[in-house]
Structure prediction request, 52 residues.
Amino acid sequence: MSLEYKNNLLEKQESGPGRKKKRIYYFLAIVGILSSLISIIILSKYYIMFGG
Prediction:
């Protein structure tokens, strides 16, 4: 089952305002993941700089 197929099914199930809300949730999730990745990278750089 491909992701595109799943997304199409979800879009068919929800019509109207529900989809916009879902897009916001996806956006927030992506932002959260990116910010946590950035903080992990920064922390690991500090650990390397200060000798663990």
